[in-house]
Design goal:
The structure holds 2 protein chains of 2 kinds.
Chain A (H helix, E strand, L loop, with lengths): L1 H10 L3 H24 L4 H27 L10 H7 L8 H25 L3 H24 L14
Helix pairs in contact in A: 1-5, 2-3, 2-4, 2-5, 3-6, 5-6
Chain B lengths: L7 H18 L5 H13 L10 H4 L4 H18 L5 H20 L16 H15 L6 H24 L19
Helix pairs in contact in B: 1-2, 1-6, 4-5, 4-6, 5-7, 6-7
Classes of the chains: A mainly alpha, B mainly alpha.
């Protein structure tokens, strides 16, 4: 999955293309958290997943607004089919599998955001990308904690 | 590095956010006021229409930006005496890397000093996220931008880890503190 996301970011050569990939990843992440909340996650983990789904929707909205500002229309939104294509089996996954899939998706998004740091021409837009990435890094802390991983944080967050 | 179109409105928003961050640190600006400025940032309407390289507009060099970030990080290291060892160690590594990059650009890192900012550790971490994010478009070197994004995300992660350890909501805001909507 991370490889597919990296490929999509890697193939994007313009600001609009980069933002479109970033938008799609956030939309899928929102669906993924919602699916995990409806599926194997319970209690506090489910509460976090629902909250993070909303965060991902806000990230997507920020990218969508940036695309509008570039006069790039957003005609299609990620669907359950996109979720199944990127994270097959998430809906039927066990708790740990689901948490790992979500962490992998967050990491892949972060790797894409770092690529945007290298390639974006509109540097002002990078601030929003960085705040989305920082939000993703915070999600990763919660996911790593739920998975029993240490350390929870990295010196230089790479998404790996 | 310089691209075509200009967008002074967007630059103005970030100037406001940058100034508000300074006032927040100095205790002369309320969190609400700061977030009001930053909310425009995250709203995105002003962000992407600009093909302008802010680094070209501001004559500040990468070395000057790194020097400022290093001073912030050194103050953070000095203020983190009571923080978990893992986070302190990561902050020291942030400072060491920034110093190395500054030296590579011909700069001379100032030696670490005594803590001068009485802010709590979580407040200091939140300031760190603001400081790094606001600095980003001022950097001309793409690799330095990536480094600063990585450190900004690390600072945000520290904040989430501290909240988690304190039994608080670890991620109250979608944009790592840049919007008011997630304020508990």
């Amino acid at each position: 999955m991370a490889g597919r996301v990296a490929e999509q970011f890697g193939a994007a050569r313009t600001d609009a293309a980069l933002l479109q990939v970033a938008l799609r990843v956030e939309q899928v992440a929102a669906l993924a958290y919602a699916a995990a909340a409806d599926g194997p996650l319970e209690g506090e983990e489910r509460t976090h997943a629902l909250r993070f789904a909303e965060h991902e929707r806000r990230h997507a909205a920020a990218f969508e607004t940036m695309l509008f500002a570039l006069t790039v229309p957003v005609r299609e939104r990620a669907s359950e089919e996109h979720l199944d294509a990127l994270l097959p089996g998430l809906r039927g996954a066990e708790r740990r599998e689901a948490l790992q899939a979500l962490a992998e998706l967050e990491g892949a998004a972060i790797m894409g955001h770092l690529l945007m740091g290298r390639r974006l021409v509109a540097l002002d837009a990078l601030r929003t990308v960085a705040t989305v990435m920082a939000g993703g890094a915070q999600h990763l802390v919660v996911l790593r904690d739920a998975l029993g991983q240490t350390p929870l944080t990295q010196t230089f967050e790479t998404g790996h | 590095m310089v691209s075509g179109r200009r967008c002074s409105a967007s630059g103005a928003v970030y100037e406001v956010v940058g100034r508000a961050a300074s006032r927040l640190r100095a205790g002369r600006c309320s969190r609400r006021r700061f977030l009001g400025a930053a909310g425009a940032l995250v709203g995105g309407a002003l962000l992407a229409a600009c093909g302008r390289d802010e680094a070209a507009k501001a004559p500040e060099s990468d070395a000057a930006v790194l020097d400022r970030l290093l001073r912030h990080e050194q103050a953070t290291v000095a203020a983190m005496a009571g923080a978990p060892a893992a986070l302190r160690d990561q902050d020291r590594r942030h400072a060491a890397r920034l110093a190395r990059e500054l030296v590579a650009l011909g700069g001379r890192p100032v030696p670490p000093g005594a803590p001068g900012d009485p802010a709590s550790v979580p407040a200091r971490k939140q300031q760190g996220v603001f400081t790094y994010v606001v600095a980003l478009p001022r950097l001309a070197d793409p690799e330095l931008r990536v480094l600063v994004m990585q450190i900004a995300a690390s600072e945000a992660a520290h904040l989430a880890a501290l909240r988690l350890a304190a039994g608080e909501e670890p991620v109250p805001d979608a944009f790592a503190g840049f919007t008011e909507t997630g304020t508990p």
